[in-house]
Amino acid sequence: MKKILSRPKSLKDAVLSYCPGCGHGIIHRIIAECIDELFIREKTIAVAPVGCAVFAYDYFNFDVTEAPHGRPPAVATGIKRTNPDKFVFTYQGDGDIAAIGMAETIHAANRSENISIIFVNNANYGMTGGQMAPTTLIGQITATTPFGRNPKNDGYPIKLCELLSTLEGSIYLERVSIHNPKNVINTKRAIKKAFQYQIYGKGFSMIEVISTCPVDWNMSPTESMKWLEEVFIKSFPLGVVKDKG
User: Fold this and answer.
1) Does any domain span residue 2?
2) Tens of pLDDT along the chain (245 residues)?
3) CB under 8 Å to 131, separation ≥6 — which residues?
4) CATH number at residue 188
């Protein structure tokens, strides 16, 4: 039989440890395919923080360095400025990038650091038990909002793409999803475009990927996909938020 699909060279031959229905595996493959197609594997350096993203170095077949919680944009800035010929991207979750790491994110975008950020938004702190994150939806039940997120006490979900779009230094911001084949294809297009913008020296790009967390959402993988499509992306609409490229 003709072989039409194979594992990307930028992805190790390893069994994923992510929970059933988690979107990280799909996103990992998309990133690996983009890096292979752009022929940049040998000069790629990824930065992963605390959270589910911490496992990335177990699966990517290129250099990955660890950063303290929330600090990947700062670490990536240092790596890129001292090694401008390298390709540098961060791989971050919502609690990491929009809570403890909000300052690092905003200032990296404001300076238009020539790095790429992959922001995986699953509306909760996935690794530590499903607590409320900055992106948790109004009314969403989490480990720390058992009666649902209440804006009076907890504030509103932070839409990071829209927030960063107000900064002159942000170049390319897009929100995508992986809940069906069409959107997986679109996600790959967006990530590849962000990577190309860095290669061309255009400045700061961030791709926000709406993803599932069935275990902490207390849903089956099928139910989580349905909730993502019918509820989640209505609060976080998909599409290009800014493109100055």
Assistant:
1) no
2) 777 788 999 999 998 889 999 999 999 999 999 999 999 999 999 999 988 878 888 999 999 999 999 999 999 999 999 999 999 999 999 989 999 999 999 999 999 999 999 999 999 988 778 799 999 999 999 999 999 999 999 999 999 999 999 999 999 999 999 999 999 999 999 999 999 999 999 999 999 999 999 999 999 999 999 999 999 999 999 999 999 98
3) 95, 124, 125, 142, 143, 144
4) 3.40.50.970
